[in-house]
Amino acid sequence: MTIDAPPLLCVGALTCDLMVHVGRLPTMPGKYLAHSGGLVAAGMATSAATAIVRLGHACALWASTGTDPVGDFLVAEVAREGISTTHIRRVAGTASALASITLDDRGERIVVPYYAPDLLTAPVTSPFAFSDFRGVLADVRWPAAAALALDAARLRGHPAILDLDVGPREALAMLLPRASHVVASLDGASILSSVTSTQEAVAALAALTDATVIVTGGSNGLSWCLSDKTVNSMPAFAVDAVDTNAAGDIFHGAFAVAMAEAMPLENALRFASAAAAIKCTRYGGRAGAPARHEVLGFLAERSL
Predict the structure, then answer these.
(1) In this predicted structure, what is the pLDDT of residue 268?
(2) pLDDT along the chain (304 residues), means of 10
(3) SS (H, E, C) 150-207
(4) What's this model's pTM, rounded to 2 decimal places?
(5) Neighbour tally for 41: CB within 10 Å
(6) In what order do the strands lie in the sheet with 15-21?
(7) Neighbour tally for 87: CB within 10 Å
(8) What is the pLDDT of residue 108?
(9) Residue 145: which of 162, 132, 169 has the closest Cα?
(10) Which listed site, 12, 20, 183, 203, has its alpha carbon 20 to 30 Å from 153?
């Protein structure tokens, strides 16, 4: 199923992830043997874009990568998914972004990314017309481009969604007021305010912006508030998780789809939560992003 609508734009991370699967996450220095592994084109914006196209919407990725063989691999993998690569910036003489991801049998992971500084330099202008897109989803990995995209989307009255995750405090603070919708991880929210729960985090972020604020807490569910600042909560769907890597990104992509389709907020959050829950039952990071019929079937089963 493909929705006949203008594409969404995802802005930010495009990384080459080295994924290794171990029994338990290491807690001490040493050598550990993995029982599986692989290379995956990923990153927050890229994984979200994967969710968007699998849920039936066209999507373009605005990201930076090197002109090295790793960059060639990344662009080819993104194109294979059906995501438009026209706006991926290739930076000569710079290594493409890398991330080491260690995953254990409980589905938990350690993620260590590296972005060469030249990948994050500010674009002079956008290489396209923002009016071509129905909405924007930006992560915090390329702040200068994210700021341009969020400002343009909000100016046009389109969804301007910020994936607020772990990053430099000054970048998070600069991007926060530009969004119409802030979808934060609890770890990301904690950088801007001292909080220990999704409810506390929503209240703290809502005091800093007029946006709709959502804070996700993995298996602990999520909280949100609108302009009236009343905090609401929703539990996570219970599933047997095997791989939580990219689950948040899949949530963000599904949420962007829901906003583009003007779903009521609570329905949008259930839709996005279902997509993330399904992904957690599958190995392979973004490769586990579900199709639209799978999300709708999952929700239908839980409404009986």
Answers:
(1) 98
(2) 79 94 91 90 96 97 96 97 95 95 86 93 80 94 96 94 96 97 96 93 94 95 89 95 90 97 96 97 90 97 77
(3) HHHHHHCCCCEEEEECCCCHHHHHHHHHHCCEEEEEHHHHHHHCCCCCHHHHHHHHHC
(4) 0.92
(5) 27
(6) 36-42, 15-21, 98-103, 109-114
(7) 17
(8) 83
(9) 162
(10) 203
Long-range Cβ pairs for the range 194-202 (8 Å, 24+): 197/223, 198/222, 198/223, 198/233, 199/223, 199/231, 199/233, 202/231
pLDDT at 1: 57
CA dihedral for 108, 238, 50, 270, sign (positive or negative): negative
Instruction: State the residue for tokens 């609108």.
Output: 226
**Residue type, position 121, single letter:** T
pLDDT at 5: 72
**Are the beta carbons of 159 and 178 closer than 8 angstroms?**
no
* Token pair for 278: 């399904």
Q: Are 194 and 171 in contact (CB under 8 A)?
A: no
With beta carbons less than 8 A apart as the criterion, state whether 73 and 16 touch: yes
How many Cβ atoms are within 10 Å of 34's Cβ, its own excluded?
12
What's the confidence (pLDDT) of residue 245? 85
Amino acid letter, residue 105: D
